[in-house]
């Protein structure tokens, strides 16, 4: 069985660190904590789990801090978490079994990263990360902000998920890092431009966000999945201000970078539905139901659009056209994915009054 070092960088994480480490401590063989300047009880809490606690001065560079934490690892593989991550029990069991069975020739293992949840705990937003890597390959982190771990070789995709359960409100820390890079006159890579646009959008600085999304989409470089996502952010903004033409144009532009994604098909369906063009809306929602959610996708995925959302929308469209049988059928399919959804439950009562059961 392989041995694993858990490497973490932390700062003022007293509210979540114990929860994280309790979920991981029996899955790994050593824990490395790198503190970047905590002023709370983070380091005291860390001492309950490990003696390997190091200080690293914060220099506005996540990659530098993560690479330092990796340099302190001693085991065969390195695993990393953030302090507001947690491994749920189902995934803990998967992790234990995976650890026993992992072929030591594997260089990197990806795991799903679930970062969005509805009120019932269903995953709404996720993507994959290279999460467990062979130490001797000396893989490095790159990027001061929204950094990434560059891996290559023999890579496998596991069914293990890490759940991101943050309790803090969003800060402007990442935005400030990008602004400092701009002030220093540093040239942004396509990836920097994309994530800077995301930060601007999240902080409701929409005009600058759209400018940077457009810059990114017009660059020769950049990952195609990120370009699909960027099209969605711009489309959502234009939709929010009632500019359906631009919203539709950006959703359609996403097809330039990849085969249709369910998120964009549902966007297009919604534009037509809101104009009472139900037959055209049905075309796009039906297409979304025919697409298979890419299990190996490393890009951002809004799970709902690949499962219950198009069916609940088809329920409405078919009902508006007087086809109650198909409307009922699609509500039942939506219910199979999300049985406690308020819209699904409301529709069930509606169909009961029409004699469906």
Present the secondary structure layout.
Layout lengths: L3 E7 L6 H8 L5 E6 L6 H5 L6 E3 L6 H10 L5 E4 L4 E2 L2 H13 L6 E10 L5 E12 L5 E3 L5 E3 L4 E10 L8 H11 L6 H13 L3 H13 L5 H17 L3 H10 L8 H13 L3 H13 L10 E2 L6 H12 L3 H14 L4 H12 L4
Helix pairs in contact: 6-7, 7-8, 8-9, 8-10, 9-10, 10-11, 10-12, 11-12, 12-13, 13-14
Can you describe what's shown?
- The strands form 2 sheets. Strands 1, 2, 3, 4, 5, 6, 7, 10 and 11 form a 9-stranded mixed beta sheet that branches. A two-stranded antiparallel ribbon has the order 8-9.
- The protein has helices spanning 17-24, 42-46, 62-71, 89-101, 173-183, 190-202, 206-218, 224-240, 244-253, 262-274, 278-290, 309-320, 324-337, 342-353; strands spanning 4-10, 30-35, 53-55, 77-80, 85-86, 108-117, 123-134, 140-142, 148-150, 155-164, 301-302.
- The model has no long low-confidence stretch (mean pLDDT 95).
- It is α/β, with parallel strands linked by helices and 357 residues long.
- The chain has 14 helices and 11 strands.
- 38% of the residues are buried.
- The protein has a domain at 4-164: Alpha-Beta Complex (Spore Coat Polysaccharide Biosynthesis Protein SpsA, Chain A).
- 46% of the residues lie in helices and 17% in strands.
Can you describe this structure in just a few lines?
This protein is α/β, with parallel strands linked by helices and 357 residues long. It has helices at residues 17-24, 42-46, 62-71, 89-101, 173-183, 190-202, 206-218, 224-240, 244-253, 262-274, 278-290, 309-320, 324-337, 342-353, and strands spanning 4-10, 30-35, 53-55, 77-80, 85-86, 108-117, 123-134, 140-142, 148-150, 155-164, 301-302. Strands 1, 2, 3, 4, 5, 6, 7, 10 and 11 form a nine-stranded mixed sheet that branches.
